Amino acid sequence: MAVIGLGIPLLILYFQYKKLQTAGKRNVITVLTILQTVFTSIFLLSSLAVIVRIIAAYIENGGVSGYNIIVRVGMAVMFIYTVICLAINVMGIISAVLGYKALLNKVWTANAAYNERVTIFGAYGSTNPRFTPPPQNNTAPGEDNLHFTTAPQSGAAADNSYWYCTGCGKKNNAHAKFCPACGKNRNSQR
After folding, report:
1. H/E stretch holding 84
2. What pLDDT score does 122 carry?
3. How far is Cα 82 from Cα 179, in angstroms, rounded to an integer?
4. Which of 183, 181, 113, 188 minimizes the C-alpha distance to 144?
5. What value, to the nearest 5°, has the Cα angle with vertex 52 and ends 50 and 56?
6. Higher-confidence position of 48 and 125
7. Over the range 153-174, which residues count as b (16 or more CB within 10 Å of their CB) and which as e?
8. Is 158 helix (H, G, I), strand (E, B) or coil?
9. Selecting from 2.30.30, 1.10.10, 2.120.10, 2.60.120, what CATH number does the domain 122-133+160-190 have?
10. pTM of the prediction?
11. Alpha carbons 16 and 79: distance in angstroms, whole number
12. For the chain, domain boundaries
């Protein structure tokens, strides 16, 4: 049950993390992936032990014909249980592999670190030269409080550690392939 209990949240988090990388999701994926690896390994070894016992009993007694009907039904139930256990193990292995894939993806890790930095410092603590704070008491309720100036021209001195999104104007980390604000691909910026 632990493999299912860890596998389902891990799969859900993986697909959420794939859309928006945050440090919190990354930390939870790290813990769940390690626990999933441990529990799946233990469950897989116990499932293999049951399979070996079933095969040994089958070979020892010359097949199913040497048993009465109750033992045959019991062996069929054990076989079905083993198939279910193997399916659970496959799900556990797949979720652990996806967890490790998320942790090893350098772009996602960089985006998570960047999003964490933006969360901590916020837009107002940003050093973005294109960001200007909203005017005091000039914004109606429900209006956007973020005001951006235009992107620097191509002749201006370019900072190679950032790129500006043409979709929303956000200044992004050079390692980010997608804009975390609007999701636009960096390669479509040029």
Report:
1. helix 69-104
2. 58
3. 46
4. 181
5. 120
6. 48
7. eeeeeeeeeebbbeeebbbbbe
8. coil
9. 2.30.30
10. 0.54
11. 36
12. 2-105, 122-133+160-190
**Which range is least confidently modeled, 4-13, 88-97, 119-128, 165-174?**
119-128
The DSSP call for residue 150 is: P
SS3 34: helix
Residue 44 and residue 92: Cα distance in Å, rounded?
A: 9
Q: Residues 14, 29: contact at Cβ < 8 Å?
A: yes
DSSP helix, strand, coil percent of the chain (3-state; round to 5):
60, 5, 35
φ/ψ of residue 178, rounded to 5? -130, 150
Identify residue 92 by its one-letter amino acid code: G
Which pLDDT tens digit goes with each residue over 25-60? 888 999 999 999 999 888 888 888 888 887 787 777
Quote the CA–CA distance of 165 and 64 in Å, as a whole number.
68
Kindly provide the b/e burial profile for residues 30-50, where b requires at least 16 CB atoms within 10 angstroms of the residue's own CB: eebbebbbebbeebbeebeee
- Name the token pair of 122: 């916020």
Q: Considering the chain, what is the average pLDDT of its residues? A: 75
Task: Kindly state the average pLDDT of the residues 60-78.
Answer: 71
> pLDDT digits over 134-164, tens only?
444 444 444 444 444 444 445 444 456 778 8
